[in-house]
Design goal:
Elements: E1 2-3, H1 21-34, E2 39-45, E3 48-51, E4 57-58, H2 61-71, H3 75-82, E5 90-93, E6 97-98, E7 105-106, H4 109-119, E8 128-129, E9 132-135, E10 142-143, E11 150-151, H5 154-160, E12 168-169, E13 176-177, H6 180-190, E14 195-196, E15 203-204, H7 207-218, E16 225-226, E17 233-234, H8 237-248, E18 255-256, E19 263-264, H9 267-278, E20 284-285, E21 292-293, H10 296-307, E22 312-313, E23 320-321, H11 324-335, E24 340-341, E25 348-349, H12 352-363
GO molecular function, one term: zinc ion binding
Organism: Parnassius mnemosyne (clouded apollo)
Protein name: C2H2-type domain-containing protein
């Protein structure tokens, strides 16, 4: 993916033909980090998101961003480290990307680079093969920052980014890669393959490998849970059960909690309920206070108190909130949903706290 900007600024970019694409990308990265709240990601594995400037890892990208902006807020360090990050692709968290010079917010990295160059006369290289991959974590799902497609894992999302940054194409299969190093690794995997998949452009060194690939990738034979009524297969047992109930009218599964009256339609939901509500399991500790939470998602919602991040935006007035529930309550204002009624005067309120304030001030009741 190439950055092609037409600059109206008086500043001219250094067109040094001796510099490699990597060096030019290093320079651009340094300018971006020095003038925004973006932060690089070293890796994502079972331990969480790794900081590109130190060995620390964090369970959520919001924790990593807070750490980076507080612990590595040094111009000298940023300039030095930016020159060390291009051994592999640079992964850049642009969640709530904001210009540090004028507080303008941006959804896309390209727009921000354009802004830095033309508005603030920043010295940036143009017409280069960009190796800086943007990522956003402003939705509950993991989505591409460019096309918004949803992915089940960060690894799959990172592989998908090759479709947007088609810097180095493969002559054998037409696939493209962000860096020449990734392309060379891909070419090695081609080997001398003569057995081409009938469903895609991949080639294999033996008939057995080709057939195994087709069964696993295209025919879904790695999905062990086959429907009792049709040929549909599922990776998850309970997804198979759900399919049989909804599509074929099989009797629904009812699992009753032995400690209370609640019922569930799958074992996973029942187990979660037992751990959360009866065993009071709280394994996720807040690093800023003493509160503990059952799930990482609950902890992430709580962290909005400490980080100030507002992930949920109103489509009507564009106000942002740290929690989805707060946004849902706010949306009642636009719908004029005054569900909280005063039993004395009949006045309605959008929020319960407003109703309580009214009851105390007008009717002297503490509710």
């Amino acid at each position: 993916m190439e950055l092609k900007f037409i600059s109206k600024s008086k500043t001219t970019v250094r067109n040094n033909s001796d510099l490699s694409e990597a060096k030019k990308n290093q320079h651009n990265l340094s300018i971006i980090l020095l003038n925004s709240n973006a932060n690089p990601i070293r890796c994502k594995d079972s331990f969480g998101y790794g900081c590109a400037f130190c060995p620390k890892q964090f369970p959520q990208p919001t924790n990593l961003k807070k750490h980076f902006l507080e612990e590595h807020n040094s111009d000298r360090l940023i300039k030095y480290m930016s020159s060390k990050l291009f051994e592999n692709v640079v992964k850049l968290d642009i969640t709530y990307l904001c210009c540090a010079l004028c507080d303008t917010e941006f959804m896309q990295l390209d727009d921000f680079v354009h802004h830095l160059k033309n508005t603030h006369n920043k010295d940036l290289y143009i017409d280069i093969k960009s190796q800086i991959l943007p990522f956003r974590f402003d939705t509950p799902e993991l989505r591409c920052a460019i096309c918004s497609i949803e992915f089940a894992s960060f690894k799959l999302l990172q592989e998908h980014m090759n479709t947007h940054f088609r810097n180095y194409p493969c002559e054998k299969c037409g696939g493209s890669y962000v860096t020449e190093r990734l392309l060379q690794g891909h070419i090695k995997r081609h080997g001398n393959g003569e057995y081409k998949c009938t469903q895609c452009d991949k080639t294999f060194t033996s008939e057995h490998k080709r057939r195994e690939h087709e069964h696993r990738t295209h025919l879904g034979f790695n999905k062990r849970n086959k429907c009792h009524f049709c040929n549909e297969r599922f990776l998850d047992y309970w997804k198979k059960i759900d399919h049989m109930v909804k599509v074929h009218g099989a009797p629904p599964v009812v699992l009753k909690c032995q400690a209370c009256e609640r019922t569930f339609n799958n074992q996973r939901a029942l187990s979660r309920h037992k751990k959360k509500d009866h065993l009071l399991e709280r394994r996720h500790n807040c690093s800023e206070c003493e509160m503990k939470f059952f799930s990482s998602s609950c902890l992430q919602k709580h962290m909005a108190k400490h980080t100030g991040l507002r992930e949920y935006m109103c489509d009507v007035c564009h106000k942002s909130y740290g929690r989805k529930n707060t946004l849902r309550e706010h949306m009642r204002i636009h719908a004029n949903d005054r569900r909280f009624k005063c039993e004395h005067c009949g006045q309605g309120f959008v929020q319960k706290c407003s109703w309580r304030g009214h009851m105390r001030a007008k009717h002297g009741e503490n509710v």
